[in-house]
Amino acid sequence: MKKLLLWSAMAITGLCANAQEKMYRDTRLEQSLMEERPVVLQKDYNSIDHPRKNRAQRSITSGTKLISDTLGSAGNLLTVLNNECNQIDVNDSLNIVTFIHRNDDRKFLNTNVAQYRFDISKNRGVPGSWTKDIGPITNDVNIDNVSVNGRFPQAGVYNPAGNTIVDSAYLVYSGTWHNGDAGGWTGQMRGRGQLSGDLNSFDVHIDTINNGNVEIASGFCQSAPGIFWNLNLDRTGGFNGNANHIVSGFILEKGIWNSTTKQVDWTEHRINQNFAYTTSNSYNSSVITGWNMDFDPTGQYGWIVCLGDITQDNDNVYNPIFWKTTDGGNNWTGPIAVELDNFTDLVNRLDPSSSGTATTTFENDLVVDYLGNPHLLVVVSKGSSYSISVSGLNIYDITYDANTPSCILGSVNGWRAVHISNVETFRGVISNDNPAPLTQDNRPLASKSKDGKKLFFFWVDSDSEFLGSAENNLPNLMTRGYDLEHFVSTPVINLTEGDELWGGETSRAPGGLFGGATFGTASLNALQNNKTYNVPFVFTQIDYPHDPASGLGSYLQPCAFWYVSNIDFDPYDFSVGLAASIQLNGADTTIVVTGNTYTEDGATISYDTACYKSGDLNLVVDNSNVNTNIPGSYFVYYTAEDSAGNVYAAKTKVVLVGSAPVADFNWAFPSFKYRAVFTDLSTNEPNKWKWNFGDSQGSSIKNPVHNYATNDTFEVCLETTNLFGTSASTCKSVAIIGVGIEDLRFEANINVFPNPSNGNFRINFAEGISSDVTVSVYNILGETVSAPARYKAGITNVDMNLSSVANGIYLVKITNDKGTAVRQITVSHK
After folding, report:
1. Within 13 Å and on the Cβ side, how many CA atoms surround 347?
2. Beta bridge partners of 660
């Protein structure tokens, strides 16, 4: 068993070695300088309407579709390609949401894509409240997309103490830029502007950082009002592979609001750290990717993280590496290398048929909770040579708590790997651009409540069974929320399956207009409305067609951004108890006949007080909406709550109210007088049928077709059943007058198979036929679906193709001078 490694040093970025078959390496190194254009546990909750929920904003488990609203646009995707950058910010007290992005030089003539603009909602992101494309906030003629090329903007809201006016607050931003040569990134474009959009309040400082030896800065956050942070690298190397790419530490950028100048004064601090490296074509590259940072709500406890390798154990995989501050960022201790193969549960979930060692993928997101503990959201699998297998993927919360009880299994020196969900696919091609198709990985994103007690995790995944591969080509947005204080989570929810815009096609639902959940980004902090939490989220529409008539290819198209306003979590969404659970004393579904009394069976709470919390939990049962006098589906809600009403577990029972069916039917002779087509007319939706045709024959299907062999009057009876009981038998007299002796002889010679079929079937004449035969096909209403076809005497088989007709029951009529026969077939397209 390996030990966690702890040293007093520090650092970060990402490369990896040669990809193996069915393994992926990190391809998010640099963006091309040649062209500035773009290089379920599913549960159906639709009918559940919890009486205690606020339905003004329905929550994620309600089944309500996403509400998407257009924002601004940008000349390409170099706003959102980097998973660890933060473009969205909120301020609850001012009811504002902001989003920063690159400029759209198609929309705004005489501008260039390297400038930044922002969008703002002054009403908590509700549809129709957005002011778009404000700016450019980078109002400097030197930002020309050549000598100064700004990319990957990040921003946060600064609200001066005591201010209650939205327009008097500021947007503080910082974005990475380069000078147009192949030498790599140069520094940061930094500035601020009032949220009023006043051009006179906009400014920008084009700062060179670390003599131009930097990377794409990420993890932009605010530890306390007016104290901003950005995480960068001390890195040598350029935009191509013909040089060493060596990281020797972090550049920690800190900005403090200056109330006199109304500017942010930025300083840089260095954290030294060396990394293992790989060699390709005689050039060395450090093994580091996904650098990120965040602070707790007090601003005192902060964490830095990267994915990389600082060990000498020859595993050649990525592991999380952390640094920590307990004094607001003045001092940092680390690195703490958390080796994933220490976690037994994690290792046991990996594909045993794959070779290699537990490794992370190449993206992550980080939040720090109310206790000052980190939560790293990252996908893991097996890997080797700094590549990762697509088999056995899972997403985890890598977290630390110095006070983790020893009884919690899987803790290693306070570190835990909390399993969030399995992941079916990894990397997918989402736009066939030329020369380089765009790809997207699982894109883990994390958000938290303002008090840090609730976490909201997001990632994208495709239906591997539908695709037949592990390619993430039709991604849907998945989510799971955690209530850390009460040890409860939501189920895993597929937010976009079936969405008209962002749905990734699956075996259960069609895809959306934009081909899946592409390049989403979430706010680091959620909005709060009483006990409901709203996570601001932005999707990216790739190849946004400003001018479809121009004939330009997709590679030259800009992108548009869309805001999703209703990703809402409320307390009753957190139904999966992590420490507590509820067991129903009776069945999950109770059946009550209309007018009878519903009897509550109750439930039992199980709770691990030794590991989590002392004190009692109470079972709260809410069956107030059950009305046994009106047929329908009702729900009883069980919650395990403490004395303050906090929910630690939840359970739901379905109560079905209804009555036994009343049997009824009619019949018709759409084709022949001896072939009766019966139609069920029973009330109360039976699900079982018992027919007696009066000639010792019967059927159990809903609407049968029956051939009578003799002319007579038959008493036909029907008995029906549903969940609430069985009807009395209803009988009616049916007169048959059309049976002829030649029909009977001719019919006995004929077989039709397979039945049911997909529409392709064969008619077999057991003794052949001595004269020409005509074959026609009708539906049960007597309407022709296949025109009559004539076949010569002497044949023994006729092959028919009805693959184009809808699922259902059809009648095949076979006629010659010897008689007429009719066969019933069922067409079922699977």
Report:
1. 11
2. none
pLDDT of residue 406: 67
Residues in Cβ contact with 369 at an 8 Å cutoff, skipping those fewer than 6 apart:
296, 375, 448, 452, 453, 455, 484
* Interatomic CA distance for residues 360 and 339, integer angstroms: 10
Per DSSP, the residues of 576-618 read: EESSEEEEESS-SEEEEETTS------EEEEE-TTTT--S--E
Percent of residues, the chain, with pLDDT higher than 70: 87
Q: Report whether pLDDT(354) > 80.
A: yes
Question: What span, in angstroms and rounded, lies between the C-alpha atoms of 392 and 426?
Answer: 10
Structure confidence at residue 52 as a pLDDT band (50, 70, 90): very low
> Shortest CA distance to 368 belongs to which of 330, 408, 324, 404?
324
Q: How many CB atoms lie within 10 A of CB 288?
A: 30
Measuring CA to CA, which residue among 268, 253, 248, 375 is closest to residue 322? 375
pLDDT at residue 295 in the model: 98
Q: Are strands 374-384 and 387-389 parallel, antiparallel or unpaired?
A: antiparallel
Instruction: Give the confidence band of 818 by pLDDT, cuts at 50, 70, 90.
Output: low
Cα–Cα distance measured from residue 263 to residue 199, given in angstroms and rounded to the nearest whole number: 15
- Tell me how far apart the alpha carbons of residues 124 and 528 are, in angstroms, rounded to a whole number: 10
Query: In terms of Cα–Cα distance, which of 173, 180, 164, 240 is closest to 212?
Result: 180
What pLDDT shows up at residue 431? 77
Predicted confidence at residue 744, as pLDDT, reads 54
Task: Please report which confidence band the pLDDT of residue 747 belongs to, taking 50, 70 and 90 as the band edges.
Answer: low
Provide φ and ψ at 554, rounded to 5°: -65, -30
Distance CA 130, CA 133 (A): 10
Burial class of residue 291, CB neighbours in 10 A (0-12, 13-18, 19+): buried
Q: How big is the CA angle at 227 (ends 222 and 233), to the nearest 5 degrees?
A: 75
pLDDT tens track for 480-502: 999 998 888 999 999 999 999 99
CA distance 446 to 376: 8
Question: Is it the case that residue 33 has pLDDT exceeding 60?
Answer: no
Residue with tokens 């998010």: 28
**Can you say how many angstroms the Cα of residue 722 is from the centroid of all Cα atoms in its chain?**
37
